[in-house]
Amino acid sequence: MSFPGSRPPGWRLKPFGKYGLASSVDVEDAGLTLGRDVWNTCVIAGEQWGMVSRVHARLESTAGRLFVHDADSTNGTFVNEERVESAELNSGDVLQLGPNGPRFLIYHAEGEVATEVVEADAQATAVSRASVASLGQTALHSLKRALGLDDAAAATTRVEHRQRRQFAIALASIAVLSSAGVVAYSSLRNDGQADLARVEETSARRAEELRAEQERRVGAVERQARELEDATDDLSARFEEGLLRFGSDLERRIADSYVARAAWDEELAGLRGQRADLEARIALLGDSHGESDTEIAALSQHLEEVLGRLRQFDPQEIEAERVAEVRHVSQAVVMIESRVVFREQSTQRLLHSSIDSRGESAVNLRDEGVVVDQRSSGSGFVITEAGHILTNAHVAVPSDFRDAMEIDDDNRVVPEVELEIVFSGSSVRHPAHIVQVDDDEDQDFALIQIEPFEGMPHLELGDIEVLAPPAGTEVYLCGFPLGTFAVQEGDRVIASTLKGILSRNVGPYLQIDAGVHPGLSGGPVTDLHGRVIGIVCSVQATPKGEIAAAIGYALPIGSARLILPAESMR
Question: Of 149 and 80, which is predicted with more confidence?
Answer without folding.
Answer: 80
